[in-house]
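Re: Re: C-alpha cell formats

Sure, here are both.
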Amino acid sequence: MNGEVSLTVTTSQVRFELKFDRNISVIQGDSGTGKSLICTLLNESQLPNSGISVKINKDIPVVVMPDITLNSPVARPWYEIIKNSSDTLFFIDETCDCLAGKPFGFAQCIKSTSNYYVIFSRKRYPDLPYSIHSLYTLNKETMELKPAIIRNIHCYINSSATFVPEYCITEDSGAGYLFFNNLVNCEVISARSKTRIAKCLSVSQRLGKNNILIIADGAAFGPEWPLIQNIISSSISEITVFLPESFEWFLLHSLCFKCFEETQYILDNFLTLIDYTKYFSVEQYFTDVLKQFSMKVGCRYYKEAMPDKIFLTKENTDYLRKLLFKFISQGLCSRNNSEDIHTQLFDDN
C-alpha cells in the first residue's frame, strides 16, 4: 500500500477527518484531545445500530490493535496479527503491548510489511523511521459546529523568512556532511547520527554559537523533532532546520538530472511510487533512486564518500546552494515544493 489514506469517522457529536500518506504515523496530543476516542469509535462502529459512520478512500481493512494480546485469552498475539495482514490500516494506542517490544521489537515486525500504522502516543519511538511529515496533533474546529470536526494536522512547520547561517550541524558524517561542508559558507560539524543532533545543538548554544542551521533527513526525523522543538522554543539563538526527505532527495535536484523527466516525476510523486515492503523509509528509497540515476550520468554514489565531481561543479553547487536557501526562506523543507522552486530559480537565472 502507498499513497494517501483518508478516513472519516462520524457520529452525531463529532467527526474525525484523518489523512495519512506514509507507512508510519504518530498522533501526539494531551489527554482529552480525542486520541483514544478514535479507537473506541472504530471498535463500536462494528456493532449493530451503532450510529457511527466510517468511510475510507481505499478498499482496505481497518484494525484497532487490542491493548493486550500477549496475555489475552481471546486475542491473537500482536505479532501474528501483523504477520497475517497486508494492505491494512492499523490504529495502535500507546497502551498496546506491541509497543513495549515484547517478545519482539515492533520495528522488527512491521518492517517489509505493506500496512499503514497509526500510533496514538505522547512518547518517542527512536527505532521507528517515521517522518516529520508523519508527526501529527489533533486539532478541533470551533465548538459551534455540530458535529465538532477534528483533524490531524502536521506538527512540523519550518517558517524562516530570512536566514544566514554562521554554524551548521549535519546529521551524518558521510556524503551529506562532506557535500554541505562545501556548500554552506560557515563552519560545519557532523552530529554523526540523528539521535545526537539535540545534544550537539545544546552544546553549540553553550559555546555561544548563533544563527545555527540544522540539516537532517526529514524522512526519519519524526522521533527527534520534539527534542529539537523544545530546544528551539527556549533558545535565544537563531536556529533554523532544513529537513529534506534525505540528502539523496536533495542531490536528485542536481542539474545533471534535469534531462530526465522521470527524476522530477519521482520527486513529485514518490509517496505513490514507494514500495514499503522493500523500503522501510523514504530515505532508503531515495538512496536507491539516486544510485540508479547516478549510473545513468556515468558515476556512482556512495553514502560514506564525497559525491562525484559531476555534483561538485560550480554551476551545480551554486544552483543547489540557491535552492537550499530558497527552501529555507519560503519555509519549504521537502516534498511537493520542488517543481515551483525549480521554475523560480531558472527564471532568476
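Second one below.
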Amino acid sequence: MKKLKVSHFGQLRDAEVAFGDLTVLVGPQATGKSIFMQLVKLLIDMSSIKAEFSRFSIGWGEDVGHFLDLYFGEGMSKLYDSKRTIIVPDGKKLSIESLLRRHAAKAHGNDEVFLIPAQRVLSLREGLTRPFTDYRSGDPFAVREFSERLHRLVQMEFSKKDELFPVSNKLKKQYRDLIAEHIFGDFGLKTDPERFEKRMVLQNASGTSSLPYLVWSAGQREFVPLLLGFYWLMTPGAVSRRDMLKYVLIEEPEMGLHPNAISVVMLLVLELLNRGYKVCLSTHSPHVLDIVWGIQTIRKFGGGADDVLNIFGASRNPGMRQVANTALKSRMAVAYFTREGRTIDITNLDPSAETAAEAGWGGLTEFSGRVSEIVSGVVANHS
C-alpha cells in the first residue's frame, strides 16, 4: 500500500497518507491515528483476521456492525457509515462489506502486518503473558492478536530458556548494551515457572535479587512488551524477516520512556528498516521527530552513516553502519492529523515553513517554542 485515503470514518473526515519506508503519524489525542493504523491492518490482513476469529470460534453472523465491534472494539461499529464512509487504498475505492465478502479466511500466520498497539501493557498480567482467549470478545483485535503472539513467543519459543534479556541471538550486542544502560540497568529479564507458565521478573546479575512485575518502573512495564514485539520480528540467522510479514505498525513507542531510551527504540526501528520491513508509527514525542529530521537533514547535506550513529551514541562497526546507511536511503513521511479530521503532509519538518502545522511539527514543538519566546521577552525586558 502506497497511499490510503479515508473519509467519514470515525474522527477521520478527510484523511490521506502517502506512506514511506518509515511513516510517522502525529497529532493531538483522539484525532484518528490509532483507528487509521488499525484500518491499514484490516485492509491488508482481512483474510488472516477472519482466520484468527475462526480459529477461536468467534463469529459475527455476516453482520458488518458485529464484525467492526469485534475488530475495533465494542461500540466501534459506529465508526462506519456504509452510505458516507469512503476508503480508497491506492486509488481503488472499496467498502467494508465488499472486503468481507472478497476475502476468505486463510490459515492464521499469513499476516503481512504486525501491529504493536498502544495498550501493549495489557499483554502482561503481573508478568504473565496472556493468550487471545484471555480477553473479552469486545476487546480490540489488535490487542488480542499482539498478546497472543507474545504468549506464543514466551511460552513456546523460549520454553527451554529462562533468560529473555539479554539474549545473544535476538539482538545485536550494540542494542543489548544500550537497552541495559538506559532501561534495565544491572538487571536482566528472566522467567520463573509458575503453575507450568513462565512469569517474567527482573533479576540482578548475581541472581540474588528478583523484582516482580508490579515493582518494575512504568517505563520497564511499557518497554518489555515492545521488546518482545521486536523479538518476534527479528528472526535470528540468515532470515531477516518473519514469515510473510512486510509491515510493522507501532503505536506510541515512546510511552513511559526517558529520551535516551526512546533513542534506543528508534534505533531498533531503523534495524527493522534494514531488515526490509516498512514501518509506520504514531507518536506524541518531539524526540521521535528530532531523529527523523536529523536523518533527513544529514542526507540532504551529504552526511554519512557515522553522523547518523552519532545521533544515537552508537558504535561505528560494519553492522551498525549498514543500519545507518539503510536509514539514509529510506523514504520518510510525516503526516499531521488535525482536530478537524484532516491530514497535512509535514514530511519536510521545516521549522521555517509558512504553515504552522509543519513549522511546529504537528504541535510537538509548539509549547517549547512558546516558553522560549516568553522567557526571552522577560529576559530582554529585564536587561
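Residues 310 and 316 are 9 Å apart (CA to CA). Residues 33-55 form the longest helix (23 residues).
- S.
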